[in-house]
Recover the amino acids of this structure.
């Protein structure tokens, strides 16, 4: 790292207001050649706005951008590309109906046939190949993007950036939907790019990744620079302190309630993994964590228990009684609720307001002869918003207009207004900022203490280790291990999660 | 509710303009006839609107009118069955055909456009076949005079279809905007998966919308048959499904589902009928009437889209301001674990 050299990118005094809201206040950022700079901060801290300024998506109100010392005004996205800046968004922009090469060279396809302007397919594929090889992406350029995994699509976008000869690569939450193995692969690619002199600006909520990857961390809070960390200073605690402006306490753990009652699932088989039978139980006061790779079948277990998907076999027992669950309605009627993985798609109805979302699963309670008592609905919604500290102007605000954390609280509020007995939370804090995360953890803990059985599915190892009382690990539809809090060990859990064969190759690698 | 004001405004302006340009618009006969048409078109448009709210579409209405109309004639004239029986059978059949559409959509996963397009072809074909390609008339049969009087008569000078529309409209308003079922309809239209996760029986809700559409279609079918006093199977009711869809869209239903207003649908229907009336009264060549309607729908929908965009922009900036404020005032932040 050549810190003495001139930075490849200098941003100075970047200011941006959106109709009265000060999104960025005189923000500065330096990036050196071959450096990975992590940009961290809570949701709304201004990370995305700053990167949108750099990527030419929005124009700043004030400020300078210099590339290799030369002042440039990034006019638009095309201009940013021409300056060697590539932006890989959290939601990938690949076109599913095209093949890999078509995506890499979209808009710059080699032509032939004179005035016919046909695409020269041979040259197209030949040109794509070296980029795929450089990234170690073992797919042919003729593969349709639709058949690729999320991680592979992301690599196609990186290949596109490289083909544009990008010197500065912006990655916004690139690992939010990757499995741990895919994440490791991506981090290795980023390290290779760094070694080749590409500068990477990396936005992530996952502090452990940042810790492993970043040469420098820039922290933003409320649109301002609040600090910069280098080398050994990059620690979770120090980053969080800067992000939220103070230290966050470790949650106190209430001892498990002494109760013989438990929630148990026996011999559950799901459509996704018909030959694997799953059994697990949760005791009162406990939070059971489900670890595993994406696709290990954890969500399917939750969905079958909650009656969303039919189950092939299996018994669900609550406090010694076998429950009859044939549909989502059955589960809900018996107090078994699911906070789904994708809250925008399955958790709430974005176009409906907070009040309507909270009452949706229990409308009968607010209605007489089918006529809904809106006042009662509004009272319940307001109560949940208060209890959960939801930042919404009113219960009449559409769910769409709330931040991710507040949306998740609405989903929780819907179930909490209905006396839960068992709650399954599938990736409850994905894409949620640190503050709201902490509130959700605290809430889970309170619910458990009140005797609600909590099952949490998570791909975030830190979250699993800190929140769960017991962790069950799944691999390809089967439970491969279970461990109590006293014996928690990250390596063991990973070992079980990847299945033993894969685990051995991992060990030899590291 | 606020959305309805826009279309109401257009409607009022149009009526005023028409009344000023041709005072015959306000004549009792013209008003009565227009009201009758609004009644007949409005009743089935509500059903179509319900289907559109679920994110579906019903293209079969027009052919259904022809098919059920032919059956009505056959039952009353050819078989001389008692009219209450025939009417009941037609209504039940309308509902059953709707149920069939709904089940095909929800159980077989066929797109609503396609199954109701099949319906459009089937019912027209069946009508032609049953009537042997000839016009079926009611003549002057004594047996069902009461029915004919009900279908074509007035109450206190107000045409019965219009009276019935007011009753059905009021009921539909309560159902869509105030009842649990209506909330489910909107929820399913906006996000079927989330509704399912919240325990809503989405298949049943969607199917029921088609049943309502078929049932209300049957009611309209009876009125249409007696209004024409004869059913020409190949042309009776043709294109009427598009009047229903247009009324719903003008009235603020989104074809993406999840949005809709009964009042809007009713005003939309009225607007279309007044437009037809306008073409007549202003002596515009009647061959142009579809073009005029197309233009008005186009203007209405584009204006609505533009207003929506402006509103969204405003909401967005407001939201950002609120979030900013919330961040600043957020003082109690519980603990975090790392």
């Amino acid at each position: 790292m050549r810190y003495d050299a001139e930075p490849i990118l200098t941003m100075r005094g970047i200011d941006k207001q959106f109709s009265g809201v000060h999104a960025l206040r005189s923000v500065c950022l330096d990036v050196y050649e071959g450096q990975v700079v992590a940009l961290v901060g809570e949701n709304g801290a201004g990370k995305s706005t700053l990167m949108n300024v750099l990527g030419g998506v929005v124009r700043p109100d004030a400020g300078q951008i210099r590339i290799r010392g030369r002042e440039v005004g990034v006019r638009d996205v095309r201009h940013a590309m021409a300056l060697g800046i590539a932006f890989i968004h959290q939601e990938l922009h690949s076109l599913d109906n095209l093949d890999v090469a078509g995506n890499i060279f979209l808009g710059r396809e080699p032509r032939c046939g004179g005035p016919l302007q046909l695409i020269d397919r041979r040259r197209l594929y030949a040109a794509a190949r070296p980029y795929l090889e450089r990234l170690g992406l073992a797919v042919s350029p003729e593969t349709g993007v639709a058949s690729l995994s999320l991680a592979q699509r992301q690599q196609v976008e990186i290949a596109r950036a490289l083909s544009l000869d990008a010197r500065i690569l912006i990655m916004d939450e690139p690992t939010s939907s990757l499995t741990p193995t895919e994440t490791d692969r991506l981090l290795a690619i980023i390290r290779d790019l760094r070694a080749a002199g590409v500068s990477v600006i990396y936005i992530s909520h996952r502090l452990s990744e940042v810790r492993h990857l970043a040469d420098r961390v820039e922290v933003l809070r409320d649109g301002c620079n609040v600090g910069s960390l280098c080398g050994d200073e990059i620690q979770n605690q120090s980053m969080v302190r800067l992000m939220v402006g103070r230290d966050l306490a470790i949650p106190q753990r209430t001892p498990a309630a002494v109760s013989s009652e438990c929630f148990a699932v026996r011999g559950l088989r799901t459509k996704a993994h018909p030959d694997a039978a799953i059994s697990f139980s949760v005791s009162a006061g406990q939070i059971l964590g489900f670890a595993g790779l994406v696709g290990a079948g954890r969500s399917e277990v939750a969905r079958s228990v909650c009656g969303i998907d039919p189950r092939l076999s299996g018994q669900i027992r609550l406090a010694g009684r076998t429950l009859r669950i044939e549909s989502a309605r059955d589960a809900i009627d018996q107090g078994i609720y699911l906070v789904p993985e994708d809250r925008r798609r399955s958790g709430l109805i974005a176009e409906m307001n907070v009040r309507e979302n909270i009452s949706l699963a229990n409308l009968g309670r607010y209605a007489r002869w089918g006529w809904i008592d809106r006042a009662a609905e509004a009272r319940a919604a307001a109560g949940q918003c208060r209890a959960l500290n939801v930042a919404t102007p009113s219960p009449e605000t559409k769910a769409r207009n709330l931040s991710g954390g507040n949306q998740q609280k609405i989903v929780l509020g819907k179930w909490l207004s209905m006396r839960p007995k068992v709650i399954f939370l599938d990736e409850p804090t994905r894409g949620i900022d640190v503050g709201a995360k902490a509130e959700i953890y605290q809430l889970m803990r309170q619910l458990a203490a009140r005797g609600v059985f909590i099952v949490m599915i998570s791909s975030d190892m830190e979250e699993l280790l800190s929140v769960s009382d017991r962790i069950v690990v799944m691999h390809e539809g089967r439970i491969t291990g279970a461990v109590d809090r006293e014996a928690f060990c990250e390596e063991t859990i990973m070992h079980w999660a990847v299945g033993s064969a894969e685990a051995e190759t991992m060990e030899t690698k590291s | 509710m606020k959305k309805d004001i826009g279309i109401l405004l257009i409607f009022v302006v149009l009526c005023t303009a028409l009344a000023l340009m041709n005072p015959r618009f306000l004549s009792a006969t013209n008003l009565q006839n227009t009201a009758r048409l609004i009644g007949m078109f409005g009743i089935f448009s509500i059903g179509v609107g319900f289907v559109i709210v679920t994110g579906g579409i019903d293209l079969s209405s027009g052919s259904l009118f022809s098919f059920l109309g032919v059956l009505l004639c056959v039952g009353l004239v050819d078989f001389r069955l008692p009219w209450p029986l025939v009417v009941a059978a037609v209504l039940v059949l309308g509902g059953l055909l709707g149920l069939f559409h709904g089940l095909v959509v929800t159980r077989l996963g066929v797109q609503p456009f396609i199954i109701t397009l099949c319906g459009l072809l089937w019912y027209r074909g069946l009508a032609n076949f049953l009537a042997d390609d000839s016009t079926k008339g009611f003549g002057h049969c004594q047996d069902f005079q009461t029915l004919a009087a009900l279908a074509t008569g007035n109450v206190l000078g107000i045409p019965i279809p219009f009276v019935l529309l007011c009753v059905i409209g009021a009921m539909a308003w309560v159902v869509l905007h105030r009842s649990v079922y209506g909330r489910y309809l909107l929820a399913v239209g906006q996000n079927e998966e989330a509704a399912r996760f919240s325990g809503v029986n989405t298949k049943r809700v969607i199917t029921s919308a088609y049943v309502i559409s078929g049932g209300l279609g049957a009611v309209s079918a009876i009125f249409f048959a007696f209004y024409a006093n004869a059913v020409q199977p190949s042309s009776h009711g043709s294109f009427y499904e598009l009047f229903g869809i247009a009324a719903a869209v003008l009235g603020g239903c989104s074809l993406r589902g999840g949005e809709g207003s009964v009042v809007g649908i009713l005003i939309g229907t009225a607007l279309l009928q007044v437009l037809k009336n306008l073409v007549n009264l202003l002596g515009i060549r009647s061959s142009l009437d579809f073009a005029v309607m197309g233009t008005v729908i186009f203007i209405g929908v584009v204006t609505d889209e533009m207003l929506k965009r402006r509103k969204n922009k405003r909401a967005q900036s407001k939201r950002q301001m609120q979030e900013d404020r919330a961040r600043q005032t957020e003082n109690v932040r519980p603990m975090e674990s790392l």
User: Anything to note?
Assistant: The beta strands of chain B are 136-137, 154-155, 158-159, 230-231. Chain B touches chain A at residues 174, 178-181, 183-184, 186-187, 190-191, 193-201, 258-259, 315-317, 319-324, 326-328, 330, 332-338 (CB under 8 Å).
